[in-house]
Amino acid sequence: MHWLVVGTGAVGSLMAVNLRRIGEHVSIKPRVTATPNTIEIIHAAHNLEFGVQQFPIEQPTQIFAAIKAYDVAHFLDELQQAPLPEGSSVILSYNGMLENENSIMPASALHWVTTHGAYKNGKEVVHAGLGESWLGWARVEHASSSRPAELFSVLNNALPLLNWSPAINQRRWYKLAINCLINPFTVIHNCRNGELIQHNIADQQHQVAEEICWLAEHQGIQLNADNLVESAKRVIKNTANNYSSMLMDVRQQRRTEIDYLNGFIARQSTAAGTEAPANEALWRRVLELSV
Ligand SMILES: NC(=O)C1=CN([C@@H]2O[C@H](COP(=O)(O)OP(=O)(O)OC[C@H]3O[C@@H](n4cnc5c(N)ncnc54)[C@H](OP(=O)(O)O)[C@@H]3O)[C@@H](O)[C@H]2O)C=CC1
Ligand SMILES: CC(C)(CO)C(=O)C(=O)O
């Protein structure tokens, strides 16, 4: 299979080196055209060179795009300007949600949701935490279509363990909830995930979770607020030493994904005729604390 990994971020680089490890043909699509025609990624003390390719693409290609939520609309726009050849698909991976995303997803799009952890240190990619992943069709009307067997098998070999998920949106809502229940609090208290237990956030977390559950149900997804808060506590314990991705973004003066997490909940709740004040307050506070 031909693979095109979008960007040289943490998750994309991790996938690129692992696809290469199992013998797949992998190129990289950088954001700008004026780069050298190879890109180097260092992994486990090996220097790997990848060819560079931009759209349009001539041959069937599997696109792997692990990008920030705020880059998704622009990326889908790029794809629309350069339609992919028959037999191609696009695998998207990002935290949070966009308004109207079902209508802007190409028919061949899949979501890849992961609990693996990775970060970049210059050209080096570090696989910081082993996890598992879920793959499913992005468009709700395709959710129950059969799984693309070869694509699934290659992704599973590259970065196990992969689960096929006809209910990928349920998985995405769950991940969104966990991020909403942890990330903004780490920014506000400027602390590691594990240090959150020293702060009195239980009531706030419950309100955040209740608001998420209301909206999820409004959109046809069943979640339980008590279970979400318990799950968030478990994640906090298991990642006690980590700085959340949102706190890292704030410290490194990068844009955060808050607009697509608690911001998404607040805006969508208003649009659905109710308010989500706990999510709204976290959204506003993180915006104040970031660049
Ligand atoms: N890192 C992790 O461990 C995990 C991350 N996630 C989520 O996955 C997503 C990706 O995370 P991560 O890899 O850390 O993010 P990064 O910011 O490290 O990587 C994103 C990459 O995509 C590039 N990019 C964005 N749009 C385009 C485009 N149109 N063309 C070419 N390149 C593009 C960016 O380029 P540029 O540098 O120019 O912006 C950057 O290199 C996020 O939503 C994150 O929350 C989820 C689980 C774990
Ligand atoms: C689960 C958590 C909070 C782990 O740090 C995470 O996904 C993040 O930092 O974005």
Automatic annotation (TrEMBL):
<dbReference type="GO" id="GO:0005737">
    <property type="term" value="C:cytoplasm"/>
</dbReference>
<keyword id="KW-0560">Oxidoreductase</keyword>
<dbReference type="Pfam" id="PF02558">
    <property type="entry name" value="ApbA"/>
</dbReference>
<dbReference type="InterPro" id="IPR036291">
    <property type="entry name" value="NAD(P)-bd_dom_sf"/>
</dbReference>
<keyword id="KW-0521">NADP</keyword>
<dbReference type="GO" id="GO:0008677">
    <property type="term" value="F:2-dehydropantoate 2-reductase activity"/>
</dbReference>
<protein>
    <recommendedName>
        <fullName>2-dehydropantoate 2-reductase</fullName>
        <ecNumber>1.1.1.169</ecNumber>
    </recommendedName>
</protein>
<dbReference type="InterPro" id="IPR050838">
    <property type="entry name" value="Ketopantoate_reductase"/>
</dbReference>
<dbReference type="InterPro" id="IPR013328">
    <property type="entry name" value="6PGD_dom2"/>
</dbReference>
<keyword id="KW-0566">Pantothenate biosynthesis</keyword>
<dbReference type="InterPro" id="IPR013752">
    <property type="entry name" value="KPA_reductase"/>
</dbReference>
<dbReference type="InterPro" id="IPR013332">
    <property type="entry name" value="KPR_N"/>
</dbReference>
<dbReference type="GO" id="GO:0015940">
    <property type="term" value="P:pantothenate biosynthetic process"/>
</dbReference>
<comment type="similarity">
    <text>Belongs to the ketopantoate reductase family.</text>
</comment>
<dbReference type="InterPro" id="IPR003710">
    <property type="entry name" value="ApbA"/>
</dbReference>
<dbReference type="Pfam" id="PF08546">
    <property type="entry name" value="ApbA_C"/>
</dbReference>
<comment type="function">
    <text>Catalyzes the NADPH-dependent reduction of ketopantoate into pantoic acid.</text>
</comment>
<comment type="pathway">
    <text>Cofactor biosynthesis; (R)-pantothenate biosynthesis; (R)-pantoate from 3-methyl-2-oxobutanoate: step 2/2.</text>
</comment>
<feature type="domain" description="Ketopantoate reductase C-terminal">
    <location>
        <begin position="168"/>
        <end position="286"/>
    </location>
</feature>
<dbReference type="GO" id="GO:0050661">
    <property type="term" value="F:NADP binding"/>
</dbReference>
<dbReference type="InterPro" id="IPR008927">
    <property type="entry name" value="6-PGluconate_DH-like_C_sf"/>
</dbReference>
<feature type="domain" description="Ketopantoate reductase N-terminal">
    <location>
        <begin position="3"/>
        <end position="136"/>
    </location>
</feature>
